[in-house]
Specification:
It is built from 18 helices and no strands. By secondary structure, it is mostly helical. Among the domains are: about 80 residues, Alpha Horseshoe (Serine Threonine Protein Phosphatase 5, Tetratricopeptide repeat); about 45 residues, no CATH class. Helix 6 runs antiparallel to helix 7, helix 9 packs antiparallel against helix 10 and helix 15 packs antiparallel against helix 16. The longest helix is centred in the N-terminal third of the chain and has 36 residues. The termini are far apart.
């Protein structure tokens, strides 16, 4: 009996999966049939382009979007789809043009304005902050996570915290919101008046409790401890992070740095070596390992790594100075 039930479950699962895919194909086929009869129907072209975009069939989506855009250039939904599509195609100039046109047609359209603002901030456009301020006013203080991150980069900590407070009321357990809080409260730069180690730790621990398999929270917590010169504790969190994801060279580099500060030179060299193994063009990895070899009294191995630095950057001054000692 159990075998029969299991078999039925399997058949149901795969049947549903097949049915979903079949429905997608049927929907596209239906749109294609309709477009064969009315090839200039913008609504149908938009629908099919959206389906292609969802399926990551970008060339087919572009063909439909370009056809629709050639017919009529002032459709808000079309401009949004066009911007998204060309962003995926790494043609951000066309994305920018589409979203700018969209905002010009409807200055209060939040999606168009958000997309355009995120793009401008990503390329560090000088209008980034002004665009964020306008969007915040239009959207009752609500901003996307990427825009709040840009505010932090711009050292606009007051605005970033205010925006996060709006978002956390909507979703108090969202990982990205909590992460940004933790990053701001652990930011030791002199411009940040919100630095608060206790609050930062509260947020780190809350994220760990909610998302115990998240690499980034352990890495960020380790970096926080490292910035406070608490190297042994930093290594504890970096070790947890590396057990979740062993492919991050910066994590090994930081472990090497903390071990060096603790005068554990053998482990320090081992961690820097692992970082270099992940990226054999990692200049700072060679620099750090050369420096620890010098601290260990092994000038021959240090010189090898200084030469590795010069192979990557022939005018790298620390390496030139290291070889001239």
């Amino acid at each position: 009996m159990k075998h029969i039930v299991f078999t039925l479950c399997i058949l149901f699962f795969f049947g549903c999966k097949y049915s979903t895919r079949e429905n997608q194909i049927s929907h596209l086929d239906s749109l294609s049939v309709l477009l064969d009869k009315d090839s200039l129907n913008i609504g149908l072209l938009k629908q099919r382009a959206s389906s292609y975009l969802e399926n990551n069939e970008l060339d087919l989506a572009r063909k439909d979007i370009d056809a629709a855009y050639a017919i009529f250039k002032n459709d808000i939904e079309l401009l949004l789809i066009r911007g998204d599509l060309y962003y995926k195609l790494n043609q951000t100039r066309i994305s920018k043009e589409s979203w700018e046109r969209c905002v010009k047609l409807d200055p209060n359209n939040i999606r168009c304005r958000t997309n355009l603002t995120e793009l401008l901030c990503a390329v560090k456009d000088r209008n980034c902050k002004a665009m964020i301020d306008t969007l915040s006013l239009l959207n009752n203080g609500l901003l996307s996570i990427p825009l709040i991150a840009y505010l932090k980069e711009l050292r606009e900590y007051d605005s970033a915290i205010l925006a996060l407070n709006h978002l956390v009321e909507i979703d108090p357990n969202d990982k990205e919101i909590l992460s940004l809080f933790s990053v701001i409260y652990s930011d030791t730069s002199g411009f940040n008046t919100y630095f608060n180690s206790d609050l930062a730790e509260e947020y780190f621990k809350k994220i760990i409790n909610l998302y115990p398999e998240d690499f980034q929270v352990y890495y960020n917590f380790g970096k926080h401890k490292q910035n406070l010169l608490q190297y042994s504790q930093a290594l504890e969190y970096y070790n947890i992070a590396v057990n979740i994801d062993a492919t991050k060279k910066q994590n090994y580099y930081n472990m090497g740095f903390c071990s060096m500060q603790l005068k554990d030179y053998d482990n320090s060299i081992a961690y820097f070596t692992k970082a270099i193994a992940l990226d054999n063009s990692f200049l700072m990895g060679y620099h750090a390992r050369a420096y620890v070899h010098e601290l260990s009294g092994n000038s021959a191995k240090a010189n090898i790594d200084w030469k590795n630095c010069l192979m990557l950057n022939p005018s790298y001054i620390p390496a030139l100075e290291g070889l001239n000692k």
